[in-house]
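$ ./design --mode recover --in tokens.txt
reading tokens...
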């Protein structure tokens, strides 16, 4: 992986438009002459516009949506299409977040269709994969995460690295305070990287950053970001507070 680390905040079903404005007023990471990492936040769609308006007050930061539908328009009450999200100012979209998979029953096929829809609308998909605790303890880590990756690999053929991002988020570490160790993260990232290289070729397979997500906080971000092949972090709970997210962003400042 080459390039800036990516520090992404997934705000889930939190932060009203006013709270988003307040967040950006108070988000002041200090990069102290070091390069700024790539910053990314995923507000609720109803707060997307507020984020757009507030952005110029903050360091350079991109905004994405947390989910899209695979169709571009039509009778899908309650859904948001990739072209709608793009037109509203989103540049990125999460796809296949574990809550989408496990709470809303999203399948690998859905994830694949959404990835295609994102590319079609010029949105950068952040494709999330991760195993559950019983899968890990049964020794099925590789099978599960490679299976989830394989579902989207045909859509990644032809895309250039950084036109998509991957996120490894072990389900047992999301919102639980239970963090994977830097070694756990690197082990899983190496498995994903190997598969990317196998299918996309040495060069292209090396390009996309793989983010780690699951109970990342200011106190553990630096060690995680230093781990081999951890190209960034996807942060839930700790990204809701501007100081805490700034601390994590500072851990991603690069020399
Ligand atoms: P968490 O969530 O940081 O609160 O564990 C991570 C995520 O769901 O992306």
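writing sequence...
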């Amino acid at each position: 992986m080459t390039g800036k680390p990516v520090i992404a905040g997934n705000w889930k079903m939190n932060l009203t438009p006013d709270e988003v404005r307040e967040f950006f007023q108070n988000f002041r990471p200090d990069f102290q002459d070091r390069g700024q990492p790539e910053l990314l936040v995923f507000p609720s769609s109803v707060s997307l516009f507020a984020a757009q308006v507030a952005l110029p007050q903050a360091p350079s930061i991109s905004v994405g949506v947390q989910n899209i539908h695979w169709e571009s328009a039509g009778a899908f009450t309650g859904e948001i299409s990739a072209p709608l999200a793009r037109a509203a100012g989103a540049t990125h979209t999460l796809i296949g977040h574990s809550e989408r998979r496990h709470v809303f029953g999203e399948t690998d096929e859905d994830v694949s269709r959404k990835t295609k829809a994102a590319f079609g609308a010029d949105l950068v998909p952040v494709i999330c994969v991760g195993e559950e605790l019983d899968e890990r303890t049964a020794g099925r880590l590789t099978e599960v995460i490679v299976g989830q990756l394989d579902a989207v690999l045909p859509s990644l053929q032809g895309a250039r690295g950084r036109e998509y991002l991957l996120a490894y988020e072990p389900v047992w570490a999301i919102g639980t305070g239970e963090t994977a160790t830097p070694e756990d993260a690197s082990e899983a990232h190496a498995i994903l990287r190997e598969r990317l290289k196998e299918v996309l070729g040495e060069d292209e397979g090396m390009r996309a950053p793989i983010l780690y997500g699951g109970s990342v906080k200011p106190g553990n971000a630096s060690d995680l970001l230093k781990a081999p092949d951890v190209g960034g972090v996807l942060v839930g709970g700790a990204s809701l507070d501007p100081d805490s997210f700034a601390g994590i962003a500072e851990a991603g400042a690069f020399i």
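exit 0
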